[in-house]
Amino acid sequence: MTQRHRTRQPDFYSRVAEKFGGYSSGARRTTRFPEGDPEEVFDTVARTVAGPGARLLDVGCADGRNLLALAPDFARVDGLDLAPEMVASARRHLAASGLTHVVFAAGDASATGFPDAAFDVLTSRRGPLFPEEFRRVLRPGGSLVYLGIGEQDVRALKETFGRGQLYGRWDGVPVARQERKRLERAGFTVVRERDFAYDEYFHTPRDLDTFLQMVPIFEDYSPQGDRDAFERYLALATTDEGVHLARHWFVLHARVDGW
Question: 243: helix, coil or strand?
Fold first, then answer.
């Protein structure tokens, strides 16, 4: 399924939440960011566009931990996720945070149900991208901050397994360029686009195995069924620092025309 039409699968994420208690597995890894950390850039852009009284909508919020870190910069925050178990996990994190201006709900990012022009900022962190709906709920001049998965992400892993998210897209038009065009057709002006190539080294094969069970690189990953492919990848990618994954993400910042 292509990034353009891919949506978060609620059954997959609910299984992850039930197994791991949220969207964190505890898999140990060392990460190297030669071009900067895309998560930090994403957060910085979101905070930069947060003005006094700003209202934020985050779609695909997962267990809410990342959103709760951003929440103090906004006057009101809504988090949506399709997976009920992820929403339940987010609400547990919210209760522990003491924040009172954040609401988590199960909802569909393609049809949020919010009124027109209800939000100043909309964020999607490796989540869905529905430009027309996002433009509808943003006020004129409002900002969309999107963290996406690039076509080169874990390419060697997917080639070894013969499948995976965005499989075979690495020789085509870059995903970031395609998403930019979709946003522009929907009435956004993209004011920032940045690619990030970085490296992750999982400390042990077990850490990588745990990680693959909780991310949608392969939504059908099975430690037993994929054992042969997993072993082949270990032979290819094991280094002195650990089992290597080459990552590729991108950040887009776009504004609704009318600024």
Answer: strand
